[in-house]
Amino acid sequence: MVMMALLQRVRQARVEVAGQTVGEIGAGLLVLLCAERGDGEAQSDKLLAKILKLRIFSDAAGKMNHSVQNMDGLGQIGGLLVVSQFTLAADASGGNRPSFTTAAAPDEGRRLYDYFVAQARVLHPLVQVGVFAADMQVSLVNDGPVTIPLRVAATDGLPR
């Protein structure tokens, strides 16, 4: 299967649970994260490395040339707001109700989400999170808009 993330370059983003803000960032990346059956820490590490190095922030000429770790080329660091999103594994090919059978089981999904967040906090100083398996309300101001899907296959571990 594939571990995947949907990235949104944001000016700001916030996640609330039961009316309380649990995570919030200014400029940076909203990372909607999904683990599928068969995914492991190697895929998580490769996906995180790709996210941190992905050059999708504009330079002075307006060209996407900077990463979240150096958003302006002068050392400005953007935030990461990491939110679990098992629905990225949806398969709607069989009818009108999506199937989520390829999503990791809840215990494994939580383990990989927690691992991803822990590694992100080691490698990046500004990391906020949602609450795994909670009913969350996510608010964002998409910058651009820029939305990028990333996938790392369990079989080859290479970003797609």
What key phrases describe this protein's structure?
160 residues, alpha/beta, D-tyrosyl-trna(Tyr) Deacylase, Chain: A, six-stranded mixed beta sheet, two-stranded antiparallel ribbon, 2 helices, 8 strands, 38% strand, globular
CATH-defined architecture: 3-Layer(bba) Sandwich
Return residue spans where pLDDT drops below 50 for at least 5 consecutive residues.
none
Overall number of structural domains = 1
Give the integer mean of the pLDDT values: 94
Mind telling me the CATH superfamily name?
A: D-tyrosyl-tRNA(Tyr) deacylase
Give the helix level as a range of percent: 10-25%
Question: What is the succession of H and E elements?
Answer: EEEHEEEHEE
DSSP strand content: 35-45%
- The general outline is globular
In whole angstroms, the N-to-C terminal distance is 12 Å
Highest CATH level, the class: Alpha Beta
Question: What structural class is derived from the secondary structure elements?
Answer: alpha/beta
Secondary structure: elements and pairs:
Elements: E1 2-17, E2 20-25, E3 28-34, H1 41-53, E4 57-58, E5 64-66, E6 79-84, H2 106-123, E7 127-129, E8 136-153
Parallel strand pairs: 3-6, 6-7
Antiparallel strand pairs: 1-2, 1-3, 1-8, 4-5
Q: What does this protein look like?
A:
The protein is an alpha/beta fold and about 160 residues long. It has a single domain, classed as 3-Layer(bba) Sandwich (D-tyrosyl-trna(Tyr) Deacylase, Chain: A). About 20% of the residues lie in helices and about 40% in strands. It contains two helices and eight strands; from the N terminus they run E-E-E-H-E-E-E-H-E-E. Strands 1, 2, 3, 6, 7 and 8 form a six-stranded mixed beta sheet that branches. The chain has a two-stranded antiparallel sheet with strand order 4-5. Strand 1 and strand 2 form a beta hairpin. Helix 1 crosses helix 2. The longest helix is centred in the C-terminal third of the chain and has 18 residues. The radius of gyration is 15 Å and the shape is globular. The relative contact order is 0.30. The model has no long low-confidence stretch (mean pLDDT about 95).
